[in-house]
Each structure stands twice: as C-alpha cells, then as structure tokens.
Design brief:
Elements lengths: L18 H6 L9 H11 L3 H9 L6 H5 L4 H14 L3 H9 L3 H6 L6 H14 L3 H6 L4 H10 L3 H17 L2 H5 L2 H8 L5 H15 L2 H9 L3 H7 L5 H14 L3 H9 L2 H10 L6 H21 L3 H9 L1 H7 L5 H14 L4
Length: 340
C-alpha cells in the first residue's frame, strides 16, 4: 500500500520494507514515472535503514541504464541519488563493487551542467575511501582537463579536492598532467575554498621528490609564502605544508630565504590565542608545519643565522603543553644551535 504523494513531482511511496523495491520497479525504460520515482528515492534514501535496503537489495545496478538515458534530467537525478548514497561508507563500498564507475566517468563530459556537478559530488565522496581514490587514479588526467576549462566555482573546489585525495596515493598522474602549474594558478583565486583546495592539492604533490622539484621550478613559492598570511587558517596551513616539504631541497631553501619566509614562519610559531577546538586543531597543524619548515631552513647558514637571533621564541615553544609541538620545537632548537 502506498501513501499519497505530497508533491506531484514525487511518486507515492509504499510503507516500510516495500518502499525501495516499489520505487525501483518504476525505473523501467518505458516508465513515465522514472523522474518522480527517483525524486522519491532521493528523499527516502536519507533514512539509513532504507539506504541499507537499497545497497543490500542489489538495486544499485538498476541505475546503470539510467546513467545512459537520453533524458538529461534522468541522468542528473540518478547522479543525485548516487551522491546521497555516497554519504555512507556502505554506499561507497557498494559503488566500488558495482559496474557503475565507467558510465559515471563518461558523464564528466555530459551536456547537462547539473549532471556534471552531481558526478563531481559523487566522485568527491568516493575518494574518502582509499580504495575509492585508488580506483579514480586513472581518471586524474581527465579531471585535470576538466579543471583547466571549468568556470563553476563549486565544481573547481570538488575537482581540486578529488585530485588532492588521489594524489596522496600517487602524485604521478597529476604531476604528469601539469598539476603544479594548474594548481599554482588557482592559489590566487578570490574564493578561499578554491585557494584552500589548490594549496592542499599542491601539498599532496610536493610530498614526492619530483613534486618538490616542480614546485621550485614553476616559481609558485612566492605565492605560497604570501598565502602564509592569508585570512583563512586552512589556506595558511596548506601553504605551510607545501613550504615544509619543498625546503627539504636546496633550491627550495634558497628561494624561501630570498623570499624572507623565516620572519613570516616565526610569526606563525609565535601566534597564540584561545580558540574553538576545530580552529585550534587547524592551528596546531599550521604550527607544526611552520616549525618543521624552520628546522629545514636552519640547515642553511643564512637560515641558521636568522633563527639564532630569534632563538628564545623557539625555546619557549619547547615548553608547550602539546607533546607534538614540544618535540617539533626541540628538534628545531637542536638544529639551530648545532655546531660542527
């Protein structure tokens, strides 16, 4: 038995365990109720119990035909349903085990903007699983092409975030697709979300030796050092992370010293304040990255000289309540005060 729909754009929904099978039964190729059924499924799937029934009832494969439907509204709504399923771990696992990834990846070039956006939302949630990020590595070159041409800011954020997650597993696909240069252009975007994700993606690339080398070669360090003073703490943190990794190389040290990065990093180490837990956690990462960057810069004679002048600040951090910060500061002091 089905209840009357409160919205004419939605299909009536049966009670209890019959709801999901009933709605999926209306998704046949000759059915005129596919769109209302998909809309009702999108509402229904927000209930974890119904989501579980959808995944474990084998209904996910029914969406494969809909992803290839001629009607763009059907394709977009099907991707929206998948996006809602990706909000739960069992949904992400189910997608990886299904045959939906190939048709889904084809929709990256779909003519419908809403469909493309929903695809990016699906992929961005899928990479929350390491296995999901691994499965999308082969798609990174295509995602990089989409990033180059994309104007919609929400999609740029999603693309950068997805590529960043994939690059933490393997930076080579993004590096081979001109990643450092592309992300570098996004670092100065007016939208802080895009700056944040671009810096995060750059940090993922800079973990590898080739990534560090390209960061130095592409001359993006001046922009990154500037972002250390950004108004957004996450932008600052991600930029500090790139600097931390890059100054391991001698060219990275030289560039950062020429850019006068030491005083900026010391100001970040000095900064204190009472903050909410979430902000405090982000500032801890910023502080750790800054201390480690300063430690690497102290390996250069000019860096050591500058840091010896501000040694009391580093020493003060060796008494920090946080053990991680305390140990990072102790290492920095040891390197700064080292004598042959």
């Amino acid at each position: 038995m089905a209840g009357a729909p409160s919205d004419p754009g939605r299909a009536p929904v049966a009670f209890g365990r019959w709801a999901v099978p009933q709605l999926f039964g209306q998704l046949g190729p000759d059915s005129d109720s596919r769109l209302p059924a998909l809309a009702s499924l999108c509402d229904l799937i927000r209930d974890p119990e119904q989501l579980y029934r959808t995944v474990h009832g084998g209904f996910l494969e029914c969406l494969k035909v809909l992803l290839e439907d001629e009607d763009p509204s059907i394709r977009a709504k099907s991707c929206e349903l998948l996006h809602l399923l990706m909000g739960h771990d069992i949904g992400r696992q189910a997608l990886l085990s299904s045959s939906l990834l190939p048709p889904l990846s084809q929709l990256l070039d779909d003519s419908s903007p809403s469909c493309r956006t929903n695809v990016h939302r699906v992929l961005n949630r899928l990479v929350l699983l390491p296995a999901g990020a691994a499965a999308l590595l082969t798609l990174v070159p295509k995602l990089m092409l989409r990033l180059r041409d994309e104007e919609e800011e929400e999609v740029q954020v999603l693309l950068l975030s997805t590529i960043s997650c994939c690059s933490r597993l393997d930076a080579l696909p993004a590096l081979a697709s001109d990643g450092v240069s592309q992300f570098g252009r996004k670092l100065t975007h007016r939208n802080p979300n895009i700056r944040r994700e671009a810096a995060a993606a750059m940090m993922a690339l800079s973990v590898s030796k080739e990534g560090k080398r390209q960061v130095c070669k592409e001359a993006v360090l001046p922009v990154l050092v500037g972002l250390l003073q950004d108004e957004d703490v996450e932008v600052q943190t991600n930029a500090a992370g790139v600097v931390m990794y890059t100054v391991v190389l001698t060219p990275g040290k030289q560039q950062c010293l020429e850019l006068d990065a030491v005083p900026v990093l010391l100001d970040l180490v000095k900064a204190e304040g009472e903050e909410e837990e979430d902000v405090a956690r982000k500032r801890k990462a910023l502080l750790l990255y800054s201390l480690r960057a300063l430690t690497a810069l102290a390996e250069a004679s000019d860096g050591r000289r500058l840091l010896l002048e501000r040694l009391p600040l580093l020493v003060r951090r060796t008494e920090d309540e946080d053990e991680d910060i305390r140990r990072a500061a102790q290492t920095a002091v040891r390197v700064v005060t080292w004598t042959p």
